[in-house]
C-alpha cells in the first residue's frame, strides 16, 4: 500500500477514534518517510488524544521544525499546552497560528482563554469577540465572553453574553460547554444577590434535561445554599437528597470537590440545628436587630444565631460571596468579588453592624499565602503585611462611606487533618503563617480602631485547632460567633 493510501487510512482511523491503530500506522509511515510533516503531525494528534502530552508536544515540535507555515500545527500544539494550563506557552502557539491565518475562530477563542487566565482581560475580550465575528454559531464563544465580563465585575454585560450563549446553543447546537452557562448565570445572580433570579435559572437548567449528573449536582447544591441561608430547611434538605450522588463521582476535579464539601457542610448544619444541640445559640427575641455576617462558606454556621453586642440583641443574617479571598479585595483591577461586596454594603441601612469574615481560603495549605510565598520566594510576613494593610484600610473606607460599623473576623487555627496534607518539614511553617496572619490582622484593626473577633485565639492550641469548635476540617460550629461576642462583652 502506498504512503498516500496509508496516510488516508491513518487519518480515517483517527476520525473513528481508533487512536492506537492510527498511531501504529503513522509509525510505519514515518519509518519509510521520516520527514513527512503531516504523518508526524498526525502522530502528535494521536498521542494528544491518548492523553500522552509529552510525546505529543515533542512530535508537534518536530512537525513545526519541518514545516512552520501551517497554522494547524501551531494551533494544535497550543491546545496541548492549554490542556496543561501552560497559558504562556499556549498563547505563543495561538499567536503564531493567527499570524498565518488571522481569521480562524478557534485559535482566537483559545488565545482569549489564555489571556483571560493571565488576567489580561482587555485583550481576552478582544480575541473572544474576534472569534464570535468569525463564527457566530458557537455558544462557547459567547459563554467565555460572559465569563470574562463576570470576572471583571461587569455584571450587566456578563448577563447579556451568557443569555446569548444559551440562545445560540438552542439554535445551532454547536458549543461544547454550553450547559455551563446555566451555572455561570446562577453564579452571576448570586454575586448580584438576586437570589430569586438564581433559583429560576437553576430550575431552567434542571428542567432542560440536558445536564450531566455533575452539572445537575452543582445547580442543586447552589439551590441548597440559598434555601439554607433563607431558612427554608425542608427545601434545602430536598435538594441535598437529590444531589447525594455528588459523593460518588470518581476522580473529582477541584470544583466538584468543593461542591461535595458544601453538600456535607450544609447537611451537617441542618442536622445540628434540628438536633437541638446548639439551641442556646438561637434565642431569638422580638426586638432583635439584624447583624450581617459577610463571608464565603464560613458564614453559613452563624446564620440566624442570636448575639448581644453593646447591650443590644442581634440576629445574625449571613450573606454569601462564593470563593472570595482577601487577595480579591486588594487587587488593583476591579473584579466580581469587589463589586459584589460593595453592592451588599451600599444597600444596608446606615448604622448597620457588619461582620466581614474572609481570609480562611487565603490561609489554606494548598492555595493562598502559603503557596504564593513558596513560588515567589517572598517572605510570607511581607506578603501578609502588604495584603492586610490594604484590606483593612479598604474596609475602613467602605464603612465610613456607607456609615456602617465593620467588625472583622480572623482565621481559625487550622484543623490537624488539613495540616497533615503537607510534608512534616513544612507543617510548622504553615502554622506560623496562619498565626502571623492573625497577629497582623489584630494589629491592623487596632491601628484603625476596628473591632476584631479573635477566632484564632478561641480555637488555637499549639498552632492548630483545639478541636472544640470545628465541625469538619474547615468549618466551625454555630456557637462560635455567639461565643466570640460574649467574650467581647466580658
UniProtKB/TrEMBL annotation:
Keyword list, A-Z: Repeat, TPR repeat
Residue ranges of TPR repeats: 37-70, 71-104, 139-172
The UniProt record lists the keyword Repeat: yes
Keyword Kinase: no
One family name in Pfam for this protein: TPR_8
UniProt xrefs under SUPFAM superfamilies: SGNH hydrolase, TPR-like
Stored InterPro entries: SGNH_hydro_sf, TPR-like_helical_dom_sf, TPR_rpt, Ycf3
Gene Ontology MF annotations: hydrolase activity, acting on ester bonds
PANTHER family (UniProt xref): TETRATRICOPEPTIDE REPEAT PROTEIN 6, UDP-N-ACETYLGLUCOSAMINE--PEPTIDE N-ACETYLGLUCOSAMINYLTRANSFERASE SPINDLY-RELATED
Protein name stated in the entry: Tetratricopeptide repeat protein
Amino acid at each position: 500500500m502506498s504512503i498516500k493510501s496509508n496516510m488516508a487510512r491513518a487519518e480515517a482511523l483517527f476520525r473513528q477514534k481508533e487512536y492506537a491503530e492510527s498511531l501504529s500506522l503513522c509509525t510505519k509511515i514515518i519509518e519509510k518517510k521520516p520527514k513527512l510533516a503531516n504523518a508526524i503531525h498526525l502522530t502528535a494528534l494521536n498521542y494528544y488524544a491518548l492523553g500522552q502530552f509529552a510525546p505529543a508536544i515533542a512530535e508537534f515540535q518536530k512537525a513545526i521544525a519541518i514545516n512552520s507555515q501551517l497554522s494547524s500545527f501551531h494551533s494544535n500544539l497550543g491546545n496541548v499546552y492549554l490542556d496543561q494550563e501552560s497559558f504562556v506557552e499556549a498563547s505563543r502557539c495561538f499567536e503564531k497560528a493567527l499570524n498565518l491565518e488571522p481569521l480562524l475562530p478557534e485559535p482566537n477563542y483559545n488565545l482569549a482563554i489564555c489571556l483571560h487566565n493571565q488576567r489580561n482581560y482587555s485583550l481576552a475580550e478582544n480575541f473572544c469577540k474576534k472569534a464570535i465575528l468569525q463564527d457566530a454559531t458557537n455558544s462557547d464563544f459567547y459563554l467565555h465572553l460572559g465569563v470574562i465580563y463576570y470576572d471583571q465585575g461587569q455584571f450587566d454585560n456578563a448577563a447579556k453574553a451568557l443569555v446569548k450563549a444559551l440562545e445560540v446553543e438552542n439554535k445551532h447546537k454547536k458549543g461544547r460547554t454550553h450547559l455551563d452557562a446555566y451555572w455561570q448565570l446562577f453564579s452571576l445572580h448570586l454575586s448580584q444577590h438576586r437570589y430569586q433570579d438564581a433559583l429560576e435559572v437553576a430550575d431552567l437548567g434542571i428542567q432542560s434535561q440536558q445536564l450531566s449528573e455533575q452539572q445537575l449536582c452543582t445547580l442543586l447544591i447552589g439551590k441548597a445554599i440559598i434555601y439554607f441561608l433563607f431558612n427554608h430547611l425542608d427545601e434545602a434538605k430536598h435538594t441535598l437528597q437529590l444531589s447525594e450522588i455528588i459523593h460518588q463521582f470518581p476522580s473529582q476535579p477541584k470544583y466538584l470537590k468543593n461542591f461535595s464539601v458544601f453538600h456535607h457542610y450544609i447537611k451537617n448544619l441542618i442536622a445540628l440545628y434540628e438536633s437541638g444541640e446548639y439551641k442556646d445559640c438561637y434565642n431569638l427575641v422580638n426586638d432583635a436587630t439584624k447583624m450581617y455576617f459577610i463571608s464565603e462558606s464560613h458564614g453559613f454556621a452563624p446564620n440566624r444565631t442570636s448575639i448581644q453586642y453593646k447591650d443590644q440583641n442581634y440576629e445574625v443574617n449571613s450573606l454569601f460571596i462564593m470563593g472570595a479571598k482577601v487577595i480579591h479585595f486588594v487587587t488593583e483591577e476591579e473584579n466580581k468579588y469587589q463589586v459584589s461586596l460593595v453592592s451588599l454594603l451600599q444597600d444596608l441601612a446606615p448604622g448597620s453592624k457588619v461582620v466581614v469574615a474572609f481570609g480562611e481560603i487565603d490561609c489554606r495549605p494548598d492555595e493562598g499565602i502559603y503557596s504564593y510565598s513558596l513560588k515567589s520566594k517572598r517572605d510570607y510576613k511581607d506578603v501578609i503585611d502588604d495584603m492586610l494593610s490594604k484590606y483593612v484600610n479598604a474596609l475602613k473606607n467602605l464603612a465610613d462611606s456607607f456609615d456602617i460599623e465593620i467588625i472583622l473576623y480572623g482565621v481559625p487555627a487550622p484543623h490537624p487533618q488539613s495540616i497533615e496534607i503537607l510534608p512534616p518539614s513544612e507543617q510548622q511553617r504553615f502554622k506560623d503563617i496562619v498565626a502571623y496572619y492573625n497577629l497582623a490582622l489584630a494589629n491592623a484593626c487596632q491601628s484603625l480602631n476596628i473591632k476584631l473577633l479573635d477566632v484564632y485565639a478561641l480555637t488555637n492550641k499549639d498552632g492548630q485547632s483545639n478541636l472544640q469548635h470545628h465541625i469538619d476540617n474547615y468549618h466551625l460550629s454555630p456557637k462560635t460567633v455567639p461565643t466570640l461576642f460574649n467574650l467581647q462583652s466580658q
